[in-house]
């Protein structure tokens, strides 16, 4: 992984208007290494070791689907109403 993902470290260099701190206390700079190695919000895999291979990183991302991902777009009023009525 090269660090080109919507994380704080990337925002710091390319999107300064976006947040750079992680959501875990004490809100450190959200770097790739922080997420993969020490973030308190991530669920660890069976051995709780940071992922090393591409397969392990893929499993890590599946387990923690919020990491290295863009937030979902906000729902508009029609979609919220449909969801409330169970039509989504
Ligand atoms: Zn964190």
Annotate the secondary structure layout:
Blueprint: H1 8-14, H2 32-38, H3 54-63, H4 77-84
What does this structure look like?
- The protein has 88 residues and is mainly α.
- The protein has one domain.
- Helix content is 36%, strand content 0%.
- The protein has four helices and no strands.
- The model has no long low-confidence stretch (mean pLDDT 85).
- The structure holds zinc ion.
- The site of zinc ion has 6 residues, from loops.
- Zinc ion binds at residues 22, 24, 34, 39-41.
Low-pLDDT sequence parts: none
Number of separate strands: 0
The percent range for strand residues is: under 5%
Structural class: mainly alpha
Ends apart, CA distance between termini: 34 Å
Order of helices and strands: HHHH
Shape: globular
**Tally of alpha and pi helices:** 4
Catalogue the ligands: zinc ion
- What Rg, in angstroms, do the CA atoms define? 16 Å
Average pLDDT over all residues: 85
Give the number of domains: 1
Largest sheet at a glance? none
Short description:
With about 90 residues, the chain is mainly alpha-helical. The protein has one domain.
Key terms:
88 residues, mainly alpha, globular, binds zinc ion
